[in-house]
What we know:
mainly alpha
Amino acid sequence: MATTSPFDTLKFSIQLREGGFTQQQANTLTNSLQEALSATVATRADLDQVKTELKTDIVTLREDVAKGFQDVAKGFQNVYKFMLVSTLTIAGTIIGTAIALVRYLAP
Length: 107
């Protein structure tokens, strides 16, 4: 991940020596901590890369959602057409039945 960090190794090493650590102990601990921090702290470049990836993912997601809405709209159009045909068929049947009844029941 990161290759640099804002960790002040010299200051930390001096504080360890002032706290009773030997030069070798202070250097070893400082180097170990620096390696651990550099492996876990994100740099600006890391954040920019994640930002770019997120923007790409958001664009893809928007396209997928838009396509989904188009598919739903197309489905509603099909349902509308089916309902229109069904309604006209029922209306035609009712009108035809009414005409037949009027002719049959007429004196």
